[in-house]
User: Fold this.
Amino acid sequence: LGLNEALADYLPCALDEDPLVGSWITPPYLRALDGRDGPRVYPRDAQGGEPHRVGVIVDQALWEVRVAAERRARGGRLEVDRAVVGGVLRLPPRPSL
Assistant:
């Protein structure tokens, strides 16, 4: 479930080039993928496997890689996005962390 929540947040944020989830629902936002609320670390911050908390941990890692790739080379973030989508297509029916 955590991976599902992560992808449900990451993909729209990547499409919009905005690390804030739900800013149109609950200002200033529901979740931040860029770590502005502090870094989340697994398993310490998973709160017993709560899916949204686990999702934020995964998302922060993906967003950090995305930002670093773009810094390294223009368009690098798109390569990360392609890799994420490619990974999703290869997931087993019931993936787990």
